[in-house]
């Protein structure tokens, strides 16, 4: 049966409906040719400068909030809730891959408070340890960046899977160690000043460096692929997360070998 629609009143050779509307005039054709073609609005592509700027913002927020928490010595009454809120925000950003600046800066603010209080506590017991941990984190970051930039090692998909699996394994071990510590002093010994504690801390520091390698690779691939500019927030969050991990692990490791007199 032929279509009753006047626009599609005839069928082509293959039985498909064809256009049978009025033939446009020369003027109409000229106007159609001169009209600008439609292009959907596109977001600016992410650049390395975008990531650097967002990184300064997230790390700056963390450092400033840590310094204020240290200066005013707010204590764990504020730091503990801040850590919980920061953990929740971090999980939301990680699992949803959110690029919301409020969530990412909120994470930096909350974790900065917790790190400031924890650093103050360590500094009270081990004089000068915080400066050593900061310098150690900077050296680890610079060394990892050099390894990546000089193409000494580049992460592969298999390596990325290994790092993620190792991180889940490490977190699981720490959870088991915490549960065991309720019944036995020191638990499994993973967080004690002992050879097993030293080895575990070294492994955690290396894991933090591995995460930095993955961060550098993700940033480079994102810039090359021209992902939208808003993803620079997510890249900055990843770097901040890795640096927080590194700092806390280096702080703990140095404490094993620092005189607390």
TrEMBL record:
Pfam family of the protein (one) = BaxI_1
Task: Give the transmembrane region(s).
Answer: 51-72, 78-95, 102-122, 128-150, 162-184, 196-214, 234-254
Ordered alphabetically, the record's keywords are: Membrane, Transmembrane, Transmembrane helix
Where in this protein does the record put region Disordered? 1-22
Q: Does the UniProt entry include the keyword Transmembrane helix? A: yes
Name of the protein in question: Membrane protein
């Amino acid at each position: 049966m032929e279509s009753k629609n006047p626009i599609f009143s005839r069928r082509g050779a293959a039985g498909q409906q064809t256009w049978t509307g009025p033939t446009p005039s020369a003027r109409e054709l000229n106007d159609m040719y001169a009209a600008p073609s439609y292009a959907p609005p596109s977001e600016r592509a992410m650049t390395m400068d975008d990531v650097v700027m967002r990184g300064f913002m997230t790390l700056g927020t963390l450092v400033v909030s840590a310094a204020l928490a240290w200066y005013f010595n707010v204590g764990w009454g504020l730091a503990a809730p801040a850590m919980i809120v920061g953990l929740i925000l971090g999980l939301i950003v990680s699992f949803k891959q959110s690029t919301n600046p409020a969530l990412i800066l909120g994470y930096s603010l909350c974790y900065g408070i917790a790190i400031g209080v924890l650093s103050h506590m360590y500094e009270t017991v081990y004089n000068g340890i915080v400066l050593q941990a900061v310098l150690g984190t900077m050296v680890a970051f610079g060394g990892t960046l050099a390894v990546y930039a000089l193409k000494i090692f580049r992460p592969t998909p298999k390596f990325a899977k290994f790092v993620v699996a190792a991180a889940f394994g490490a977190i699981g071990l720490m959870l088991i160690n915490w549960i065991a510590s309720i019944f036995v002093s020191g638990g499994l010994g993973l967080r004690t000043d002992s050879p097993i504690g030293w080895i575990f801390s070294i492994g955690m520091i290396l894991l933090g460096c591995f995460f930095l390698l993955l961060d550098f690779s993700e940033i480079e691939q994102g810039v090359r692929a021209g992902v939208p500019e808003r993803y620079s927030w997510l890249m900055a969050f990843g770097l901040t997360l890795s640096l927080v991990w590194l700092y806390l692990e280096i702080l703990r490791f140095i404490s094993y070998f620092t005189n607390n007199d």
